[in-house]
């Protein structure tokens, strides 16, 4: 989805109005836009994995809620059993956003400390800001 399409599509949504009205002053916008292109590409995933159209729209809305957009860079977006999974890895940390259905979001965090793997699953209460919080943690 192009930036202008995303702005037009979500500018009237009260949840995302602020996210899409932010001027695109961030460097390398093209690199962050790749996550939206990857979500759109899921429309042609194999039928057994392809998410329903409403879930693709939900995934776009969740990603639009992530500010600064630089956090979106490097996301590996995949379809799995009609769910959308977006994974980020940085140093010894991982964040996975699970979007199993429209208006459903779970965020998984994993990190290594003292030679042990630690993890937790955040029930995001369908709040896209939970993903932003997890990505802030990832890159801190």
Description:
The model has no long low-confidence stretch (mean pLDDT 84). A hairpin with a 6-residue loop joins strand 3 and strand 4 (106-113). The protein is built from five helices and five strands, in the order H-H-H-H-E-E-E-E-E-H. The chain is an alpha+beta fold and 140 residues long. It has one domain (3-138). It is globular.
Which sequence of SSEs, written as H and E, runs from N to C?
HHHHEEEEEH
Side by side, the strands of the main sheet go 1-2-3-4-5
Question: What is the global morphology?
Answer: globular
Number of helices: 5
SS-based structural class?
alpha+beta
The parts where pLDDT drops under 50 for at least 5 residues are none
Largest sheet: 5 strands, antiparallel
Compute the average pLDDT.
84
Instruction: Tell me the domain tally.
Output: 1
What is the strand tally? 5
Q: What is the terminal separation in angstroms?
A: 28 Å
Strand content: 25-35%
Topology:
Blueprint: H1 3-10, H2 17-21, H3 29-41, H4 53-64, E1 76-80, E2 83-90, E3 93-99, E4 106-113, E5 116-123, H5 129-138
Antiparallel strand pairs: 1-2, 2-3, 3-4, 4-5
Helix pairs in contact: 3-4
């Amino acid at each position: 989805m192009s930036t202008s399409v995303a702005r037009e599509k979500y500018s009237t949504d009260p949840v995302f109005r602020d996210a899409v009205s932010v001027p695109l002053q961030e460097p390398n916008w093209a690199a962050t836009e790749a996550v939206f292109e990857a979500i759109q590409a899921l429309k042609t995933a194999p039928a057994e994995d392809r998410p329903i159209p409403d879930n693709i729209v939900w995934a776009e809305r969740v990603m639009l809620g992530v500010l600064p957009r630089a956090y979106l860079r490097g996301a590996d977006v995949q379809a799995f059993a009609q769910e959308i999974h977006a994974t980020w890895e940085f140093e010894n940390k991982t964040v996975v956003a699970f979007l199993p259905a429209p208006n459903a979001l779970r965020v998984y965090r994993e990190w290594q400390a003292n030679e042990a793997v630690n993890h937790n699953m955040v029930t995001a209460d369908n709040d896209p800001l939970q993903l932003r919080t997890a990505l802030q943690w990832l890159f801190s």
